[in-house]
Design goal:
The protein folds into two domains: 32 residues, no CATH class; 37 residues, no CATH class. Helix content is 60%, strand content 0%. The longest helix has 16 residues.
Length: 96
């Protein structure tokens, strides 16, 4: 029994296509193999097989705060222990 196939045309920038093809070739896959694999995963999972999210309000707020901190060049820490030590000290100063 022969399976009927269809042609799929996708527009993508030349540079992206070439870089993807090179990367996939290192995995032993062609671009067509990768697209077929992607389509099979969509069918099997009944979902988009990659995690796509729009950041929620709390995440957007945290990203904005992080950007402000980077722009302000506030104090930086060499490691997590230094950061947590600083946080513990600020709690003591606030009476917690």
């Amino acid at each position: 029994m022969t399976t009927q196939t269809s042609m799929l045309h996708v527009r993508v920038e030349d540079a992206v296509k070439q870089r993807a093809a090179d990367t996939l070739a290192q995995m032993g896959l062609s671009v067509s193999d990768a697209v077929r694999l992607f389509m099979h995963r969509v069918v099997a999972e009944q979902a988009f097989p990659l995690e796509l999210k729009v950041p929620n309000a709390a995440t957007r707020e945290a990203l904005t705060e992080a950007d402000k901190i980077v722009r302000a060049r506030r104090k930086r820490y060499a490691n997590a222990d230094e950061l947590f030590g600083s946080l513990a000290g600020s709690k003591k100063r606030r009476g917690r």
